[in-house]
C-alpha cells in the first residue's frame, strides 16, 4: 500500500470510529465500513452541500479518478462522477443520486481490499485467490501472485493467522481471517 493510501485509510477509519459506525462484527449490513453516516440526509444529490459531499467526492476521486474539486458542493461534475460510478455496478440504479445503495458500494470500494466472500483454501483458483495473494504480498509475505492457492499461499495465511490469537491457524481464508486481514490492510 502506498503511503498516501495508508494515511487516507487511517483517516477514513478514524472518521468511521468517531462517527460510531459499526466496525464489522455481526450482521452483514453492519460489516460495511461506511465512509460517513448517510442516515442524516438519506440521499445526496445535485445541490447538496457539506462534509459528506466532500468525503463522497474524495472517494470518487480515489476509486474513479474523477478529478473532482473536493469542495463539498454536489454540482454537475459530481453528478456525472456518481453516475459513472453507478454504471460500473450492475446492482445500482443509474440516476446520479447518491443514495443508500451507491453509498454502500462506494464505501466498500474505498474501505475494503476487495476480497471475495468465498472461503479459500488449498486447491482454490482464480481471481479471488490473486486478490488474497496481492494482499499478502502487500504485507510482505513471500507469495507468488498466480491465482493458485497452494502450499506457499497456505503457509503465508497461517503466518498471518498466527499474529492474531482470535484466528484459527488453519491456513483457510474464511470470513474471520478475511475480516481481520481487511482491517489490517486498511489501517
From TrEMBL:
Keyword set, alphabetical order: Signal
Domain Peptidoglycan binding-like per the UniProt entry, residue ranges: 49-106, 125-181
Xref: InterPro entries: Peptidoglycan-bd-like, PGBD-like_sf, PGBDSf
One Pfam family per UniProt: PG_binding_1
Protein name (Swiss-Prot/TrEMBL): Peptidoglycan binding-like domain-containing protein
Residue ranges of coiled coil: none
Taxonomic superkingdom: Bacteria
Signal peptide: 1-29
Amino acid at each position: 500500500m502506498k503511503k498516501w493510501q495508508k494515511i487516507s485509510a487511517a483517516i477514513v477509519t478514524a472518521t468511521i470510529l468517531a462517527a460510531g459506525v459499526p466496525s464489522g462484527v455481526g450482521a452483514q449490513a453492519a460489516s460495511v465500513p461506511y465512509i460517513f453516516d448517510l442516515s442524516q440526509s438519506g440521499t445526496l444529490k445535485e445541490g447538496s452541500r457539506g462534509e459528506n459531499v466532500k468525503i463522497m467526492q474524495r472517494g470518487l476521486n480515489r476509486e474513479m479518478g474523477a478529478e473532482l474539486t473536493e469542495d463539498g458542493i454536489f454540482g454537475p461534475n459530481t453528478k456525472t462522477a456518481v453516475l459513472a460510478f453507478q454504471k460500473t455496478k450492475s446492482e445500482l440504479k443509474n440516476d446520479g443520486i447518491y443514495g443508500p445503495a451507491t453509498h454502500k458500494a462506494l464505501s466498500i470500494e474505498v474501505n475494503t481490499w476487495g476480497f471475495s466472500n468465498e472461503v479459500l483454501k488449498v486447491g482454490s483458483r482464480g481471481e479471488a485467490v490473486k486478490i488474497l495473494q496481492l494482499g499478502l504480498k502487500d504485507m510482505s509475505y513471500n507469495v507468488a501472485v498466480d491465482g493458485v492457492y497452494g502450499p506457499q499461499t497456505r503457509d503465508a495465511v497461517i503466518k498471518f493467522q498466527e499474529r492474531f490469537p482470535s484466528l484459527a491457524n488453519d491456513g483457510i481464508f474464511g470470513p474471520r481471517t478475511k475480516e481481520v486481514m481487511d482491517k489490517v490492510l486498511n489501517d
